[in-house]
Amino acid sequence: MLPSTLDELIDALRVLPGVGPKSAQRMAYHLLQRDQAGARRLSAALEQAVQRIRHCARCNTFTEDEVCSRCASGRRDASLLCVVEMPADLNRMEETHLYSGMYYVLMGRVSPLDGIGPRELKLDRLLARATDGLVQEVILATNFTNEGEATSHYIGEMLKSRGLKVSRIARGLPVGGELEHTDSGTIAQALVERRLL
Amino acid sequence: MSGRNRVDGAAAYVLHSHPYRETSLIVEAFSRDHGRVGLVARGARRPHSQLRGLLMAFAPLELSWFGGGEVRTLAKAEWQGGQPLLTGQALLVGYYLNELLLRLLPRDDAHPGLFQAYGEVVRQLALSPDSGGAASLRRFELTLLQELGYGVSLEHEAEGGEAVVAEGLYAYLPERGPVRVADAEAASPLFTGKALLAMARDDYADAETLHQAKTLMRHLLGHTLGGQALHTRRVFMEMQEL
Fold this sequence. Notes:
heterodimer, A: alpha/beta, four-stranded parallel sheet, two-stranded antiparallel sheet, 8 helices, B: alpha+beta, CATH 2.40.50.140, de novo design (two linked rop proteins), 6 helices
């Protein structure tokens, strides 16, 4: 029999994705036996994060303030709104140094088979954000998975019916890509979505 | 690797997948010769995994796997091509098909006829997304019910087995069959003999047949699902609302 507090810790660690009973046990033993200082730090950081982090009222990403620093900066183009699935996607877009508009982070994607629809994603918030009167074009940068496509289709229909200009990021061969070394599915879709010159 | 339990190059579609452990996926696949199978795709969620873009729903694939038990191990996936990915409304219909198969089809039961009907709808949806492939969709639903063992009687009445007549008006009892009614107030939903007979002939040229077939399939599938609502239908409804 394990002490009940240890049991509770192991059980609690299993909330992490990809962590089963064995990994949870390993983590718990490590924290208690080898790194108690680390355990205290982790505990404090979790406590702080859960208390302080919330969603930006404008772009929905994680922030400690009512409005995140990017949305509040005033230096970005308020006529462009780029919709991404996750904060990591937003970071990738920023790394292009080509986009200076605003963002909206969905924090997920439509997945009908998992019962995740407009309500679960709180898409009414995106609708309110996109119809603030300043946004002229919405750029859909959800993933090119089936779920990302379903998400972009749905958001596109919703916003087009409100008279907004809606675009989707392009799909095709990667930059520097050679046909010879590209998978057939990518080439097929690039052919289907070819554009006139 | 056990040679006994090895399956090579099985025609299949991915129905759904979810993350498994750090870097793997559990894939629910629908194959022609082995029915619905659960497969672990090891490392499929690593950033540069070859499998990553391959294991997408609605793309015709050839899958190889090995192992016994409830969930096998995916060895190889090959893209077959010939049709683009689903988009827009057609994609949502695709999710509906997949949910029906995931809910109703038991694992490891081969249904080649149903596989063919599924492939046909997906192809229609991919190649002409606007027409929606309504006829092939109804054909798929009917095949699904028949292959699950619900004889869907369209030409003979439930009681006494009397032949269905074109000018008759019928109610439909799930798992039993059509019952002729005297007046249109008697029951709901109602079907014309003409539409039932057209469905029996696999003739969906008439828009009214298509419409009634949709109602009948919803009626029967609703019964088969035991009143459980489909996720996909709820999500579609929500999508109409905003």
